Amino acid sequence: MKRTLALLATCATALGLTTLATPQAQAATGCKVEYTVTNQWAGGFQAGVKVTNLGDPVTGWKLEFSLPDTAQKVVQGWNATWSQSGSAVTAANVDWNRTLATGASTDLGFTGSFTGANPKPTAFTLNGVACTGSVGGEEPPPDPDPGPNPTPGTPVGINGQLHVCGVNLCNQYNRPIQLRGMSTHGIQWFGKCYNNASLDALARDWKSDLFRIAMYVQEQGYETDPAGFTSRVNSLVDMAEARGMYALIDFHTLTPGDPNYNLDRAKTFFASVAARNAAKKNVIYEIANEPNGVSWTAIKNYAEQVIPVIRAADPDAVIIVGTRGWSSLGVSDGSNETEVVNNPVNATNIMYAFHFYAASHKDNYRATVSRAATRLPLFVTEFGTVSATGGGAMDRASSVAWLDLLDQLKISYANWTYSDANESSAAFKPGTCNGSDYSSSGVLTESGALLKSRISTPDTFPTS
Ligand code: IDC
């Protein structure tokens, strides 16, 4: 007979929520324990204990729990060093399982003896942190800070917490909406472009709904300073929130193309940003920018490991999954959307990324999007008006055909890039970010002028 005791979390909470005033990276903590009685006989039982680390990686750990009375004894345990004092039991790591990455699990077990009632251990802790099944389970704040109320009339003020409904992105009134906005360039290179003046221009002059924060993982990005980049992303989320814009947190994997290369980094990063931003309504998570040279199965496997880490801390946010062939739904790899339609990610409230560069990707890509949009929730988290190199001439006709299609299908988009990079995809002329003028037409490139004219037209957000 197999019985499972539900010892999982009921309350999602996070240490980070209590420290909104200091946008610094916190050491994320948290754990989940699944306790299963796998066999039981007169006076004895066997139990499996699956321990999942939901916080930052640990090296060396101690699982502690209580048995209901001193008559219950651990007789023999495995995969840990077991000890008991009164009703308190400790299982300490053995050498080979001493490291638990974020999201990693280890299986322990023991046989026990008991008299009377069935054995029901309680109060599991991992390194002293209660295993509530969520991040930062140590001392749940009774009433998480809901954050400042979004300003009425702004995109976040009108639409509130978003969710996926059918193939659409829906607002708090359960009506489909389209978000139109801009992506940063790599924040490790163009950080100076993201300041109060440039964000004011984006929100007020461009009337942008969306600000994508491209945090490269390689190329001098996150991997070189996890705490620093986490904190920079969090402050950009706050700057977008203060202006009523949605913030799309982009884990900008690019080279290498297999997102699994960065799996542990992704778990650590998302556990932290999701805990810290859980109460906000303006956050959307993009877990892998452009998978390339990797199968859909491998991407799906990555997604199914990262999504639960986000959900444990921030259960209701929309999450976007990159697709094969540089987020082309497989088209740039000679495949198409059917590999996703036939084998979707096993999760709810998610969308799939589609990227294009208008001078390189034309009719067959548009046909794919038209077809796929009837089956899959799509989000164009990045596109350019130029060639896939980010440079070359702007292709106005193709760009306009794409933007018209996205408007018609209510597919949200972010344009690469809101920066003054010396390449034609940038919206500002080189040197703009050294000054304070982000509003006059003189600072815009050809691409910037086109995008500003498209994004600044009135939104039609349904409110009932
Ligand atoms: C490009 C930048 C360029 C940078 C290069 C490598 O525009 O300045 O040197 O990345 O980091 C993408 C990627 C995006 C690329 C962009 C243009 O998501 O990182 O940015 N692009 O090549 N996919 C298709 C095109």
From TrEMBL:
<dbReference type="Pfam" id="PF00553">
    <property type="entry name" value="CBM_2"/>
</dbReference>
<keyword id="KW-0624">Polysaccharide degradation</keyword>
<feature type="signal peptide">
    <location>
        <begin position="1"/>
        <end position="27"/>
    </location>
</feature>
<dbReference type="InterPro" id="IPR001919">
    <property type="entry name" value="CBD2"/>
</dbReference>
<comment type="similarity">
    <text>Belongs to the glycosyl hydrolase 5 (cellulase A) family.</text>
</comment>
<keyword id="KW-0378">Hydrolase</keyword>
<feature type="region of interest" description="Disordered">
    <location>
        <begin position="132"/>
        <end position="157"/>
    </location>
</feature>
<keyword id="KW-0119">Carbohydrate metabolism</keyword>
<dbReference type="InterPro" id="IPR018366">
    <property type="entry name" value="CBM2_CS"/>
</dbReference>
<keyword id="KW-0136">Cellulose degradation</keyword>
<feature type="compositionally biased region" description="Pro residues">
    <location>
        <begin position="143"/>
        <end position="153"/>
    </location>
</feature>
<dbReference type="InterPro" id="IPR001547">
    <property type="entry name" value="Glyco_hydro_5"/>
</dbReference>
<dbReference type="InterPro" id="IPR018087">
    <property type="entry name" value="Glyco_hydro_5_CS"/>
</dbReference>
<keyword id="KW-0732">Signal</keyword>
<dbReference type="InterPro" id="IPR008965">
    <property type="entry name" value="CBM2/CBM3_carb-bd_dom_sf"/>
</dbReference>
<dbReference type="InterPro" id="IPR012291">
    <property type="entry name" value="CBM2_carb-bd_dom_sf"/>
</dbReference>
<keyword id="KW-0326">Glycosidase</keyword>
<dbReference type="Pfam" id="PF00150">
    <property type="entry name" value="Cellulase"/>
</dbReference>
<protein>
    <recommendedName>
        <fullName>Endoglucanase</fullName>
        <ecNumber>3.2.1.4</ecNumber>
    </recommendedName>
</protein>
<feature type="domain" description="CBM2">
    <location>
        <begin position="24"/>
        <end position="134"/>
    </location>
</feature>
<dbReference type="InterPro" id="IPR017853">
    <property type="entry name" value="GH"/>
</dbReference>
